[in-house]
C-alpha cells in the first residue's frame, strides 16, 4: 500500500464563519462551518465583537464535529493550517491562538495562511490539480482581488484589488438602498434577474482613459453605489416611479462587466488560459453567466467551485495548507502574528 | 500520581506557569498588553521546555477567565481549550481576579478581606471583593458579583490589589503591597476547586456587551447594559 498523503486540519476564522476541515492531499474528508451571521443580521452588518465571541464558542465543537465527520482523530493530523490574515483582528485572533495550541499539543507543524489565496486554493479539491499558472478572481463581501498564480503554494502576484468597497459589499449597500433585507447580495441578485440590465447606464469604475491606465486591474465600486443612490433620489425628487428590478439588473451588470472585462484583459496580457473564481460573491448569477460567456469566446477555461466552497470555510484553508505541505514550504513560527491586512502576495507566514 | 498543571492567564499581559504538586517548576510573564496571540503558545512551550515536561505529561490545564479586555482574554481561553483538546486533558476556568486575591491573602497573613481592581480600559476598572475562607477550595470566597465601572472614590478602607490600584491611586488609598497576578495561584485554585467538585466554568467574563458603534449601516442599537448587582449596590 502506498504511503498516504499528509492529513491537514484547516481552521478559518477571519470574519463571521468558524470553519474547520480535514484534507488529505487533494481529497476533502470533512468540512464543518458554524456561522454567527444570524446574530449580525439585526444590526444590518457584521459586529466584530459579536463575531469574535461566537468564534470562541464555536471553535472547539466545530473541530470535534469535523473530526467525527472525517472519521479521524487528532492523532492522525499531520499539520495544522489557519487563516492568519487578512480579516477582522478579533476573529483572526481566536482561530490563530487556538491553532497554535493545537499544533504545539499535537507536535505538528503550523501554517499561518492567506485567507484570500485560500479562496482560490479550494478549487483544487473540486476540479483537480491546477495548471502551471492561472488567474484567480476572488470576490466576496470583504475582498475583490485579481491574482496571478504561478504556484498556489509559493508564487502569487497581486495584479489588483478594490480601492474602496468589495463587490459583495456594494451589493449589500445597494440592497439597503432598495429596502431589501441584510445581507442584500442574494436579494439584489434575485431581483436583477427580473430586470433589464441595459435600462440604466450606471458607471464602470476605473475603466476608461487615465484611470484605466493607472489602475488596469484595480476595481472601484463606491462610485457605482453612489450613482445608484443618486438615481433613486432623482426619481423620488421628481415623484417618478422606477423599476427596482431594472435598478438591480443594471447595477449587477455594471459590477459583473467590470470584473469580467478587467479579468479577461489580465488573462490576455499574461497569456493565461485558466481562470478560477472564488469567494462568496462568485454565487452571483450575472457574474457567472458573463464570465462563462466571455471566457468561452476568449478561449479561457473558467473554474468556479460550488457555492459551499466559495463562502468562507475550513476547506479552503486546509486545501492551501495541503498545497504548502506538498510543496515543502517551511512551517510558520509559533509566535506568528495575525495580520488583518495581510499582503496578497504572501501565501503563508514565513519561518 | 502527581499533578502536573499548566496555568495560563491573559487578563493582563500573558502569564503562564507549570506547577507540579503545588510547586512552581517554571513560569513566564510577558506584559505586552496587546500581542497575547503571539506570546501565549510560545510561552507555554518555554515553560514546558524549562521544566523538562512533555506536553503529554500534563494532567490538567487551568485558564484565567477574566474579567479582562476581550481580545486578549479569548487568546487564553482558545489556547487552553485547544491544548486540552490536543492532549485530551481536563481544562478548568478560574476568574483571573481570584488569583489576584489569593496573592494578596498570601502576601499579608493578617488580611481578611480584599478588593481586586484591574484595568478595564475606557477609564474603568473590573472589580470584585473577596474574603479569606480556609474552608473553601483555594482558601478564598468572592463576595458579591464582578463589576465594571469607573474607579469609585468611596471604595473605602478595604485594602485593594490589582492594576487598577496603580492607575487610580486616589480611589484605592489602602493597597496590599507587592502583589502581582501569579499564574501559579491560578493553578492551585483551579485544581482545588476541580477536586472539590466545584464549578470551574470556561465562560469568559466579558461584563460588557459588544460595542455595535461604527458598524456600517448599523441601525438598531442594543438595549443599554443592565448594571450588575454589585454595581447597583454602590
Report on this model:
- The complex is a heterodimer of chains A (about 350) and B (about 230).
- With about 350 residues, chain A is α/β, with parallel strands linked by helices.
- Chain A has two domains: about 5-120 and about 315-325, Nucleotidyltransferase, domain 5; about 130-305, Nucleotidyltransferase, domain 5.
- In chain A, about 45% of the residues lie in helices and about 20% in strands.
- In chain A, the strands form two sheets. A five-stranded mixed sheet of chain A has the order 3-2-1-4-5, with helices on both faces.
- Chain B has helices at about 35-50, 70-85, 95-105, 165, 185-195, 230-234; strands at about 5-10, 15-20, 25-30, 60-65, 90-95, 115-120, 125-130, 140-150, 160.
- With about 230 residues, chain B is of the alpha/beta class.
- In chain B, helix 1 (about 35-50) crosses helix 2 (about 70-85) and helix 3 (about 95-105) packs across helix 5 (about 185-195).
- Chain B contains six helices and nine strands, in the order βββαβαβαββββααα.
- The model of chain B is unreliable at about 215-234 (pLDDT under 50).
- A five-stranded mixed sheet of chain B has the order 3-2-1-4-5, sandwiched between helices.
- Chain B folds into two domains: about 5-95 and about 180-195, Nucleotidyltransferase, domain 5; about 95-170, Nucleotidyltransferase, domain 5, CATH 3.30.420.
- In chain B, strand 2 and strand 3 form a beta hairpin.
